[in-house]
Design goal:
The protein is mainly alpha-helical and about 100 residues long. The protein is built from three helices and no strands. It has helices at about 1-25, 35-45, 60-95.
Length: about 100
């Protein structure tokens, strides 16, 4: 009984941690440092040397491409680490050769 009460209280605490700032926050603009830096650079009069070859049409496409890039990178990293671990295990299990 006590364990269920503690679990329920922890779940409510986590929900409150997300809900309270949203309810009390009002309106705020969430902007990252990239967009702020871009605004400062553009305001200084800087002109880029060239235009991008490909520019996604919306932020959803940009986010999706970023997630795809992260997934491919994670897959490559997992593959390399798995191969290295497999080599290590194979060397340990192989009989000693003169």
């Amino acid at each position: 009984m006590r364990r269920h009460l503690v679990t329920a209280l922890l779940v409510l605490l986590v929900v409150a941690l997300f809900a309270v700032p949203l309810l009390l926050g009002g309106e705020s603009e969430y902007a990252g440092t990239d967009s702020r830096a871009t605004e400062l650079i553009e305001d200084s009069g800087y002109r880029p040397w060239f235009e991008s070859v490909f520019s996604p049409g919306s932020s959803e496409i940009e986010s999706g491409l970023f997630a795809l890039q992260a997934a491919v990178g994670g897959g490559v990293l997992g593959y390399v680490l798995g191969r290295l671990r497999g080599r290590h295990v194979a060397r340990q299990q192989a009989p000693d050769q003169p």
